[in-house]
Model the fold of this input.
Amino acid sequence: MNKTELIAAVAEKAGLSKKDAERALNATIDAITASLVAGDKVQVSGFGIFEAKKREARTGRNPRTKETIQIPATRLPAFKASKTLKDAVAK
Done:
């Protein structure tokens, strides 16, 4: 399912127009993104937790030249599914 299909599904289930569903989905994504950028965690009951995790700097190896390189520290978005979501998918 891509974003367009998700918007159509949300519009149908919520009884909204596709334009309103798209605005709602975009607002949700923007709010989650802003919270992660600020370093906050977003918990959606029954769905899961979005958070930004830190990855420490480390030494890597260029596979082509076998040269050792330094990989800088970074922050990455992460998602942990709730038990409710895991159980629903497992059925």
About this structure: Residues 27 and 73 are 30 Å apart (CA to CA).
